[in-house]
């Protein structure tokens, strides 16, 4: 069965602010099919000035706290970049990309449905690594 990829209506370059970017990332995350036991916090990391664009970097850090272990043994981060082109009109929507901390693969929200399994894999790999040490 083909999954419908959920995306949101991204703000225009003209209306973009760092706070608005973070709100919209939260809005995007709310469309992801992730069990409610997962908790996350998001934060703005930095602004990057390039020749052709401005890039705004954010991070959402995920964990699975439980009653027994309120501080998760490991966390998984998803890094977001919001790109504002210097060549497109300021009425054009911003472009958004994300990648998982363990991966160099860059994904676009409108082309790829987020999977909870990606977070589970990162955390399981970290726990296996720490147990080996």
Automatic annotation (TrEMBL):
A GO MF term: protein kinase A regulatory subunit binding
A GO CC annotation given for this chain: cAMP-dependent protein kinase complex
PANTHER family noted in UniProt: A-KINASE ANCHOR PROTEIN 14
Protein name: AKA14 protein
């Amino acid at each position: 069965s083909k999954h419908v990829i959920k995306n949101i209506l991204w703000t225009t370059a003209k209306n973009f602010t760092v706070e608005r970017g973070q709100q919209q990332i939260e809005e995007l995350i709310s469309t992801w099919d992730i069990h409610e036991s997962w908790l996350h916090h998001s934060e703005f990391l930095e602004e990057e000035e390039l020749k052709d664009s401005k890039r705004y970097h954010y991070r959402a850090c995920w964990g699975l706290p439980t009653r027994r272990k309120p501080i998760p043994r490991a966390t998984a981060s998803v890094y977001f970049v919001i790109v504002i082109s210097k060549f497109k009109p300021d009425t054009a929507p911003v472009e958004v990309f994300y990648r998982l901390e363990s991966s160099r693969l860059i994904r676009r929200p409108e082309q790829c449905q987020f999977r909870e399994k990606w977070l589970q894999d990162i955390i399981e790999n970290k726990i296996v690594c720490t147990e080996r040490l």
